[in-house]
Amino acid sequence: MALNSNNVRGQGYFASQYGPFKITPDAGGIANSTSPVGEDRFHRRMDLLHSLDDGLRSNSPYGQPVDDYSEFYTAAQGLMYDPIVNKVLGYTSAESARYGNSVLGRACLVAYQILKANQGTRFIQITSADGWDMHSSIYAGNNLPAKGKLLDDALSAMLGDLKSGGLLDDTLVVMHGEFGRTVGPLTGGQGRDHYPQQFAFLAGGGVKGGTIIGATNAS
Question: pTM to 2 decimals?
Fold first, then answer.
């Protein structure tokens, strides 16, 4: 599952079934999870399609891409007319507010709901989408403190819900960026540049809190 992650990589050399399901969280869940012709008629149409099409697909000279296409259809149908789906992927305004009313907060909320539903999802990637690439003017217009609050509200609410729901011990939460940021005085542009020596944040999953693994030197 990939939330706010439209540019996330695909499944690589693995089969298409291992590709990420990419969505941007929405209060209504996912669109087009019902058919305008009704559930019964929709299934009859799909049965007709299979009766006409399955033989052609099984004898297709195009191989794996055709099989992948069939799997996409099957996976999409599995999301339709399932009351759990939109309940898990949607949210109320009050729930969104508790997570900070932000793009990141809503993704953290949906991630928690997915884990709570326990439908088989094993890995969820969330992209912040809040723009932490601050090479200059890091404090102008309350830039960094405002972004910090978005992160704090979203992450703390998700960790709190995971803990109260008994899920934190079995869920490893990893937070990291493409780079860390330079430490010490700000740059000449009043910002911070790339600093690949650190950092990553780990919580849950049996990780001992308050532990620093490794160290950086004085520079």
Answer: 0.82
